[in-house]
Prior knowledge:
This protein has 3 helices and 5 strands, in the order αααβββββ.
Amino acid sequence: MFKALKFLKNESGAIAVETALVTPFLIFALLRATDVALQVHTGQQMAKATKSGIQYVVNGGRDEVSIRSIVQDSFSQRIVDDNLLITAYCGCISENPTPDGGEAADDEVGGTYVKFQTQISDNMCVAACDSSSQVSALIEIDFTHNISGIMTKPKMRTRLQTRVQ
């Protein structure tokens, strides 16, 4: 019985037991923090790449291949073609009835705003609207990317659009 009490009072291995209990939680926290940091970094790179593409459009660029190239060059990883969608829309404000294929909404000035998808070009909306309509063009860059994290594999997305003349 004396040896059993001596064994119970012995604390020489307490630190090893505590370390063994805490270490898995610390490793989990480190891996999760690494994943979060990777997501933040990738999100910032995606936003920067998308902004670069939009900036090209704002400065007068109307070539879809160039937009793709600028976004790809601004992003440090390879972009899968399906993950980068570049879409152009034309909008016409008119008092005429809505043409087929367009989305219409009542405008504050008393006309109808019609939005429809078109091809990116220098004169992409000129031929689409009649001469009495106010014309506006909208170009949207939608960029998604799958991250290969340590613990998670999230799909991130950034989307920007700009109205051009």
